[in-house]
Design a protein that fits this description.
CATH topology: Rossmann fold
Number of helices: 6
CATH superfamily: HUPs
Bound molecules: 4'-phosphopantetheine
Strand order of the largest sheet: 3-2-1-4-5
């Protein structure tokens, strides 16, 4: 069974992330969408909130699981039996960051391969940061994120009716 980990902050999960999960699930038997627990990073949603949203959004997708992890990603991959890490690449701005992560992970464990999927053009400019900015001012972000995410953002910003 080919298992991949799709790690991220997912703070929050966007339609770009969703597209990647769907495409990765065509390539791997099992895709573990795993929220990175990083206590030094100020996140908007708690890990539990992000996982609850992911479970709701990804519930009907066969072979897709939701989890969280703490510590080094390559160690986590070994624990869950994954030989591949899936990451998305949007415009050129993502490249330097992703290349650095890839190099580091490769040095730590060369047996874990990173598979990059290029963002479809309709998601090239969607980011968690930007959709938070829109929701902060009370606007729905359903154009760019699953409805559950849009609702959770508006609620957390105090705009829910
Ligand atoms: O969605 P993000 O914030 O770009 O995801 C970054 C993430 C979580 C994949 C990366 O920070 C990570 O793998 N963190 C776990 C700790 C680790 O393994 N660090 C070494 C590689 S950066």
């Amino acid at each position: 069974m080919k298992t991949a980990v799709y790690p991220g902050s997912f703070d929050p999960f966007t339609n770009g992330h969703l597209d990647l999960v769907q495409r990765a699930s065509q390539l791997f038997d099992r895709v573990i969408v795993s929220v990175a627990i990083n206590s030094s990073k100020n996140s908007f949603f708690t890990v539990e909130e992000r996982m609850a949203i992911l479970r709701e959004v990804l519930a009907s997708m066969p072979g897709v699981e939701v989890a969280s992890f703490e510590g080094l990603l390559v160690d986590y991959c070994r624990t869950v039996g994954a030989r591949a890490i899936v990451r998305g690449l949007r415009a050129v701005t993502d490249f330097d960051y992703e290349y650095a992560i890839f190099q580091l992970n490769h040095d730590l464990n060369a047996e874990v391969e990173t598979v990059f999927l290029l963002a479809a053009k309709e998601y090239s400019f969607v980011s968690s940061t930007l959709i938070k900015e829109v929701a902060r001012y009370g606007r729905s972000v359903e154009q760019h994120a699953p409805p559950a995410v849009s609702r959770a953002l508006l609620r957390k910003f105090g705009h829910a009716k």
